[in-house]
Specification:
Length: 130
């Protein structure tokens, strides 16, 4: 079993940044739908053989904790900045938060995969798709 490459998690990173991207640009939802369609096509074609890994990660309790943590982080940052009197209202601010959320999402999902592979005693092979 080979791990999913890091670039695959970029699709989930985009989903993690979707809220602030839509706040920064009102037509971002169209681009997000396109990325969602590309994600589905890649999942159904390129990663067909790795469906077990994807399902295992989606059913994993750590993945659910990561999701809850990301939602709490987003709400916490927005609430904290609002409480300090500096709410994010500009497009640049929303883009900055979306970049942070996308990077955090990719890093946490990649780390979750590494932990799962170590727990199962599997060695992470090359991170390329063949």
């Amino acid at each position: 079993m080979k791990p999913l490459p890091v670039w695959f998690f970029a699709f989930e990173g985009i989903a993690g940044a979707a809220f602030d991207l839509c706040k920064a640009w009102d037509k971002a939802w169209m681009v997000l739908i396109a990325f969602g369609a590309v994600n589905m096509m890649v999942g159904l074609t390129v990663f067909r053989r790795r469906a077990k890994v994807v399902r295992a990660m989606l059913n994993n309790t750590r993945s659910r904790k990561i999701l809850a943590g990301l939602v709490a982080l987003r709400l916490g940052v927005h609430l904290l900045l609002s409480a300090l009197g500096a709410p994010i209202t500009s497009a640049v601010g929303h883009v900055a938060i979306s970049v942070v959320m996308a990077g955090t999402t990719v890093a946490l999902l990649w780390f979750d995969q590494r932990v799962a592979f170590r727990t199962l005693g599997l060695t992470a092979q090359a991170q390329t798709v063949r």
